[in-house]
Design a protein that fits this description.
It is built from 21 helices and seven strands. The protein is mainly alpha-helical. It has a five-stranded mixed beta sheet. Strands 1-4 form a two-stranded antiparallel ribbon. Helix 17 links the parallel strand 2 and strand 3. About 0% of the residues have low confidence.
Length: about 550
Amino acid sequence: VLQLVPVWAFRYFPSQDGPAHLNNATVLREFHHPDRTIYREYYHLNKNLDPNWMSHLLLAALGAFLPILIAEKLVLTGYVVLLPLSVRYALRAIRADAGLVAFLIFPFVPNYLYHMGFYNFMWSLPLYFFVFGYWLKHRERFGLRETVVMTFLALALYFCHLVSLVTVCLGIGFLAVWFTVFDLFGRRDSPASHPSSNRGRGRILWEGVKNRALIPLYALFPTFLLGVVFLNQKGAGRSDRLPFQYQWDRLRVLESLTSYDDREIALSTAVVWLFVAATVAWLVVKIVRRRWHRWDVFALVAVGYVVLYFISPDAMSGGSFISHRLMFYPFFALILWLGAQPVHRALQRTVQVAAIALTLGFLTLHTVRYAELNDYLDEYLSGMELIEPNTTVLPLCFSHVGIAPDGRQLARRIGLFLHASGYIAAERRVVELDNYEGNTSYFPVLFIWEVNPFAHLAIDGAIEAIPPRVDIDSYPRRSNGKGHVDYVLVWNMQERYRDNEDTQRIFRQLGESYDLIDTSKRGLMTLYRRKNWNGAADAAN
């Protein structure tokens, strides 16, 4: 409940790519509306069944009867509520009294990818635990009903994010093999424990393979098929593997929990040490009691996820930030391992209190920063009402993280001003020419190539560089007369870029072809409109 307070207390959730999601969800919902002609001039809808769609579909559905900002808050609320519930569900599939360990997930809720606005990936996290937990719960008796439910859970996970789908499939596959081998050689009460009982071994092997692997594999087959089609269409191109030392330095401080403030590093490092301390404490209990069981496999799964984190590329098939995502899963596996251990309740309570304290620390830092950033977002959007529907707006951002008038950086790692114009596009029903999702091949809403601003307005695609590299005057010609820039929003222009060649080109063209129509209270935002403007009808000409 406390983690929902900053989501609902402020008008804007300060994320980097969240506004782009709101923009494209609005386009997706209203694409065929007769009054939204500008959408059909610049966009087409992706007809492939690609991943990374779930949050767009949820936002589009909720936006049909709610303001888009409220729809976003509900999508975030769903994630914040479902993640701990899904962890509890998976833990209780292992042990009925393991739910207390679910508190360890709370520090992971407000993470870097959450503040980056990667809503599809965030929704994949609870689905990861629901899929894993469902398999754990029914692994010995997969019937028709369980197979159908597993299929739909896996499909939902596919439309959230492939990273969580791949990691859960690897985990399930490893556990299926482990449990079957454990039954064959580790159960003293099993007929298979007798060397002469080949028939008993065969029965155990068949039942284990059938229920734990073959039927779940059948349930996952539609998802595998979609994944193969996606990879075949997008290709398997990948970036180089990141250096080991760099990856280790990020993992040991759990960098994917830090977003806005350098003080978050101390808290994220404390989360790592909490897991180290809990793991050591649980191991001491196990050694003293000499209790080793099949659920200790989760420790091996955690090790496997660590290896996967180090050997995987950071970008593949058009997707990026892979290592930031993979950083979570070793800790997720450790949560399941810790929950599987029968330790004293006092030890669990101690871990609970520590997890709550760290979560409150993150919550305090984030709430303070949300308040400040909302003030700057209000300034960024202060001229929004002057932008008419059915037009285009080009945002030119000279600082993605924001620079305050006193020179202080507003956000440590989150470029929340980079796509903040997505709010304008969603509210005013205009085309944002820096819609990065439209320049991909897998989001629901894509630019028509002839008018794609990244190809025909930007110079070498560097529309999001600092300073931006664009040629506004040549856009109509390079897009065969179909593209036009009606409004230009300049954010956080700084004097150090004044003599830059790209900056001079921008302001020369603005001076020749545009009128300054608004300046924000601190002068951080300036809004320009094409000269001789005759209303929205002029945009069509």
